[in-house]
Amino acid sequence: MDYRSSESYAGPRSEDTLPATATAAVKVVIVGGFGVGKTTLVGSVSEIRPLTTEETMTQAGVGVDDLAGIEQKTETTVAMDFGRISINDQLVLYLFGTPGQERFWFLWNGLFEGALGAVVLLDTRRMEVSYDVIGRLEERGVPFVVGVNAFPGAPRYPVSELRAAMDLDDSVPMIDCDARDRASCRDILMALMRYLYTLTTVSPEPQ
Asked: Which of 19, 39, 100, 169 shows its CA 20 to 30 Å from the CA of 63?
């Protein structure tokens, strides 16, 4: 059977094709603990229809996934999220969202291959779920910025207190964001690009 002639066949949508002017592509990973908004961010900012691997949470996760503070969550990413955004006519970012549960962290090795940097999403209601995430990035030597996701009713803290709680160096950018808002998501990605640029232009210390 020639599937190309089938009425059900559909090629790439015109809006999903890579801009002809694009000359550079950068891989960025969106990370964070379970339920901090990674899938929402990718979906909000992507200029193409995002790929998600969300599955309905089942009894298999009871006693394994900590739902404290996010009891209303019914779906979870089991592999990755994928999206794309053009920063300008030449630069395109490919976004890969990681699964948050530790039992899926074995997938991180492949997702981090070739990544230039990462965005860490932080939920101030449950900061502890991001401790190990930041530790793994630091072990891998992956540059990152932190986005403090604005969940409704979440407590707000001074940046200095958040840095102390996360044991973050002052050089690591920390920005308020709303994973539901496209402009806010774009701002944090731009902050990551600026941070990566500064790291490439810092003069080496004299020997």
From this structure: 39
Give the whole-angstrom CA distance, residue 36 versus residue 129: 9
Q: What is the distance between the alpha carbons of residues 31 and 14, in angstroms, rounded to a whole number?
A: 29
Give, as one character, the DSSP assignment of residue 99: P
Structure tokens at 80: 């990755």
How far apart (Å, rounded) are the C-alpha atoms in residues 98 and 1? 38
- Which of 60-74, 120-134, 177-191 has the highest average model confidence (pLDDT)? 177-191
pLDDT class for 191, splitting at 50, 70, 90? very high
* This model's pTM is above 0.70: yes
> Do strands 54-56 and 24-32 pair parallel, antiparallel, or not at all (unpaired)?
unpaired
Give residue limits of the domains in the chain: 22-54+75-201
Measure the CA–CA gap between 37 and 41, rounded to whole angstroms.
Answer: 6
CATH of domain 22-54+75-201: 3.40.50.300
Beta bridge partners of 120: 31, 146
Q: Is 121 helix (H, G, I), strand (E, B) or coil?
A: strand
What per-residue confidence (pLDDT) applies to 183? Answer: 96
Q: What is the largest CA-CA distance in the chain?
A: 68
Take residue 49 and report the two structure tokens written for it.
């229809």
Distance, CA of 190 to CA of 193 (rounded, Å) = 5
